[in-house]
Amino acid sequence: MSVQLVSDTAQALLQIQNVSLEYQTRDRIVRATQGVSIDVYEAERYVLLGPSGCGKSTLLKAVAGFVAPAQGRIVLQGQSVSGPGPDRVVVFQEFDQLAPWKTVLDNVLFALHASGTLRGAAARERALYYLDKVGLSAFTAAYPNTLSGGMKQRVAIARALAMQPRILLMDEPFASLDALTRRKMQEELLRLWEEVRFTLLFVTHSIEEALVVGSRIALLSPHPGRLRAEINADAFNLQSQGSPAFQQAAQRIHGLLFEQPAHSTPPQAEQALA
Ligand SMILES: Nc1ncnc2c1ncn2[C@@H]1O[C@H](COP(=O)(O)OP(=O)(O)OP(=O)(O)O)[C@@H](O)[C@H]1O
C-alpha cells in the first residue's frame, strides 16, 4: 500500500470548489477557468502550472479576493472568500510592488500598520525579524531604487511573511530575474519554508520551477483552464534537478499538458510553457 502525502480526512486549509472565472470585456465574456476544484493543505507548497493564458493568475487573484467566481466558491479555513484580506498576501512578478518613497523597513512596517496587524515596537520587531530571514538586515534604511531586482523581491517576500498570512500567494515571483538569481531565490524560498512552514500557492509556467518549488502541482489545460492532473513533487528540490527521476517527472508533465505520450518529448534544460 502506498503512503499518501495528505490524509484524506484532514480538512483542507484552502478549498477551490468547482470554480469558473470570467472577465466581461466590452463585446464578450472571456472564460479564464472552467470548473476547477483544488484542495490545499496546511504547510503545502502548491503550484499552479500551465501554459500562458490558462487562467493561473486569475485563479490566484480569485483566492486573493480580487476576482469573484462566476461559478463555484473559494473557502479558506471554512470561510467563503468574498474579498481581499490580510490573511492572504500576494507577491507579484513586478519589481515596482514596493513604495519607492519608503525605506525597506518602512515598506514592511506600512503593510503591518495599514492592515491593522501590528503597531509600535512589536511591528518593528517582526519586520526586522523577517528582513533578517531574507538576508536584508543591512539594507533596512535603503530605498527600493538602490536595490537589485532580487533584493526587491526579497523585501516583498519579507513584507508578505511579516503579515503571517494563512496562505502566501506568489504570482511568477521570480520570472523577471536572471537565471542565476532565480535559482538562488528558489533556494531561499525553500529554506524559508523549512524554517517558517507557511502555506504557499505559487503560479509558474516553468515545469522545472514547479518541480523544485512545489510539494504538489496542479496541471491546468490551455484556455479556459481546467484541472488536468495533480502531481506529487515532494521528492524534488534544486539538488535533484537534472537527475533521471527529475527529468522523467518533467517529461511526464510535459506529456500530460500537451497530450503527448511521455516518451515522445525529449526533456530540455528549461521547459517553459509559454
Ligand atoms: N483583465 C482582463 N480582461 C479580460 N480578459 C482577461 C483579463 N485578464 C486576463 N484575461 C484573460 O483571461 C485568460 C486567463 O488569463 P491569466 O492571466 O489568468 O492566464 P495565465 O495562465 O496567468 O497566463 P500567463 O502565464 O501568460 O500570465 C486569458 O485568456 C486572458 O486573456
Q: Helical residue percent?
A: 25-40%
Q: Give the count of structural domains.
A: 2
Strand order of the largest sheet: 6-7-8-3-9-10
* Ions, cofactors and other bound molecules: adenosine-5'-triphosphate
Shape: globular
Q: Label the CATH architecture of the largest domain.
A: 3-Layer(aba) Sandwich
Span of the ends, CA to CA: 38 Å
Average of the residue pLDDT scores = 90
Number of DSSP E strands: 10
Can you summarize this structure?
The protein is α/β, with parallel strands linked by helices and 274 residues long. It is 32% helix and 22% strand. The protein has two domains: 14-87 and 166-257, Rossmann fold (3-Layer(aba) Sandwich); 95-164, no CATH class.
Any key phrases for this structure?
single chain, 274 residues, alpha/beta, Rossmann fold, 6-stranded mixed sheet, 4-stranded antiparallel sheet, 7 helices, 10 strands, globular, disordered N terminus, disordered C terminus, binds adenosine-5'-triphosphate
Structural notes for this entry:
With about 270 residues, the chain is of the alpha/beta class. The chain folds into two domains: about 15-85 and about 165-255, Rossmann fold, CATH 3.40.50; about 95-165, no CATH class. It is about 30% helix and about 20% strand. It is built from seven helices and ten strands. The protein has a six-stranded mixed beta sheet, sandwiched between helices. Strands 2-1-4-5 form a four-stranded antiparallel beta sheet, with helices on one face. The longest helix is centred in the C-terminal third of the chain and has 18 residues, at about 180-195. The protein is globular, with a radius of gyration of 19 Å. Residues about 1-10 and about 260-274 have low confidence and may be disordered. Bound molecules: adenosine-5'-triphosphate. Adenosine-5'-triphosphate binds next to β2 and α1. The site of adenosine-5'-triphosphate has 14 residues, from β2 and α1. It comes from Rhodoferax lacus. Belongs to the ABC transporter superfamily. It holds the Pfam family ABC_tran. InterPro entries: AAA+_ATPase (IPR003593), ABC_transporter-like_ATP-bd (IPR003439), ABC_transporter-like_CS (IPR017871), ABC_transporter_ATP-bind (IPR050166), P-loop_NTPase (IPR027417).
